[in-house]
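Give me structure tokens for this 274-residue protein.
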Amino acid sequence: MKRRTYEVEAAVPLGRSLEHTLGEPRAVAEQRIHAGTVFVDGRRVKDPQVQLSAGQKVSIVLEAGGTSTETTVRAVPLVEVLFEDAEVLVVNKPAGLAAQPTPDGAPNLLDWASAHLGRTAGLVHRLDKETSGVTLFGKTKAATSRLAAAFREGRAKKEYLARTGPGLPERGEIATPLQKDPSRPGKWRALESGNGISALTRFVREASAEGCLVKLFPETGRTHQLRVHLASIGFPIVGDRLYGGPPGPRCLLHARRLELDGQSWEAPVPSDFG
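Here you go.
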């Protein structure tokens, strides 16, 4: 028999706690409870509205007698809430978690945020699956529209961190236009010729030893912009297999800081940056 057990951090109904922990829609979480596969402090509970207290232990039976329960559980990586008020939810997206639903049905950040809020969250911007860091959601339609407009108008100021190989200049800017690579679907390239879209990245090297830690300031928000721009000057990001980066645990790109309309939020640097 396989179980997943966790300790409750704050008072919350059982159904919502399970929804948050497993990253499943509320109906699926409640189905587990009604099926009798959820235990609180060792006792089976079938009421999703039972109020939990901090410190209680919840166990979910994932497999019994070698046969999976009806819904397969894929654990959601730990998502840290950086800030929340009546209009905005800001989280630290972990590397390896997709920003929005994918065809394979894997856990994703949008579903997690919607479960956290108890309603559909408004995804304002997206990070690549392997990229970690600050991600912003609107809690209402009006807030989501306002925030999305700020991004379109260039009022969102972003700072990223990345690891590259050695030798990167101390500072500079890359303004090469970007265009889709016709030979490799899903990949972009930086070319001065052709009908590319404008893109501008400024960078400042923060440290240099065997490799470089670099701060990146994208003035535009194009798909794969930072990855393509660094690769185009001969310094692909460590772990970025798509663009020829040196070996690493993942594509070492982290959205460290976001500033918008007088507010700013910062996500701690992940341990895999070294």
